[in-house]
Automatic annotation (TrEMBL):
InterPro entries: HARBI1-like, HARBI1_dom. GO terms for molecular function: hydrolase activity; metal ion binding; nuclease activity. Its main location: nucleus. It is found in: Nucleus. Residues 159-301 form the DDE Tnp4 domain. This is Putative nuclease HARBI1. Keywords: Hydrolase, Metal-binding, Nuclease, Nucleus.
Length: 356
């Protein structure tokens, strides 16, 4: 899909509407009112990549902010149709034209619906993607300790980055190539033990790390975030020891324990891209809308986690881990405006010694 590729057609449609010369094309009828309700549970999941309950929950959360559009010659596009069509766009590889035909809306209307829903979802971000309370942190660190199969305690989140491939922008294209020789936006995120994204930041590769620069404000002294080796070692951000073939047995044991916890963020990204396959290649010309689209997917991902069954989620994760390969940002240098001191190294050493 190219969300913006039909700009000329959209403008042409708008002019025809103003002149009163527009003839409605022969599009699919009653898809939302008859065909979708007839889907089996499995068919619904295969198409929308979400369970019916998850989608209904998305509608309950999002509907208050979604406005009924008044395009299509005066016929309003209702809220449910807007959300269904936009989630279909994000969840499938279908072309913009085919989604327009399937949901019986014009391309200009679908474009407006997409921008509106994405913008609305970003307004929900502070209430959906947020840091856990102190009480929740305690339970999260207990669960991460169990994952590590050692007494690696006090992890309240895992941070990593994932590339979202995009076409080369017309402006500032040199800001977006990765070291793997394709253009991308970097999604930096922190997730908890349940794969919920609790902080997220999307920008060009190697950009100032917004997540890392903010997290230190929210991590109490005894807790920390598990990180990949690409991240700086800080008192609240602990990466593994870099293996240069001189690691001690204790350091290797620490790395293995930390790695078990860090697998959570890999599963989180796999599930996110399993739900929203458009993130495999986000073909959009309006570069300013791309980070908003990525964050919108993160918000929908969070909302759906409570309602998708475990087997379905595990299938999505396995499918994506098999097909995506390595899309992590491990090769990308990060920058952050945080003073690096010896306190991080000392804390990591203390944690290593405490492991059994």
């Amino acid at each position: 899909i190219n969300i913006d590729s039909s700009d000329d057609e959209i403008d042409y449609e708008f002019i025809k509407r103003l002149r009163g010369t527009r003839v409605k094309p022969n599009r699919m009828q009653d898809f939302t009112t008859q065909r979708i309700p007839s889907f089996t549970h499995r068919q619904f999941q295969q198409h929308f990549r979400l369970s019916p309950t998850s989608l209904e929950r998305c509608f309950v959360v999002c509907a208050p902010l979604v406005k009924k559009t008044c395009i299509e010659g005066g016929k309003g596009t209702d809220k449910r149709l807007q959300l269904l069509s936009v989630i279909w766009l994000l969840s499938t590889p279908d072309s913009f034209r085919s989604v327009s035909d399937r949901f019986d809306v014009g391309k200009s209307t679908l474009h407006d619906n997409f921008v509106h829903v994405v913008t609305m979802l970003n307004k929900l971000s502070p209430t959906v993607i947020n840091w856990p309370t102190v009480e929740k942190m305690n339970q999260i660190q207990i669960n991460f300790g169990k994952m590590s199969k050692t007494n690696l305690n006090n992890i309240i989140g895992v941070i990593d980055g994932s590339y979202i491939p995009i076409p080369a922008p017309k402006k500032s294209a040199n800001s977006y190539p990765t070291r793997k020789c394709f253009h991308a936006i970097t999604l930096q995120a922190v997730c908890d033990d349940k794969l919920r994204i609790i902080d997220a930041f999307a920008d060009y590769p190697g950009s100032d790390n917004g997540v890392l620069n903010q997290c230190f404000r929210y991590v109490p002294g005894q807790y920390f975030i598990a990180a990949d080796k690409m991240y700086p070692i800080l008192e609240w951000c602990i990466p593994p020891f870099i293996d240069r073939d001189v690691l001690s047995d204790q350091e290797k044991f620490f790395n293995v324990s930390l790695s078990r916890a860090r697998q959570t963020i890999e599963r989180c990204f796999a599930l996110l891209k399993g739900h929203f396959r458009r993130l495999k290649y986000l073909d959009m010309k309006k570069i300013e809308l791309i980070p908003q689209t990525i964050i919108a997917c993160c918000i929908l991902h969070y909302i759906c986690l409570k309602f998708d069954d475990n087997q379905w989620m595990n299938n999505l994760i396995s499918e994506q881990q098999l097909n995506l390969g390595d899309d992590s940002t491990t090769d990308q240098l990060l920058t952050c405006h945080i003073e690096i001191t010896q306190s991080g190294c000392l804390k990591r050493d203390q944690i290593m010694v405490s492991l059994i």
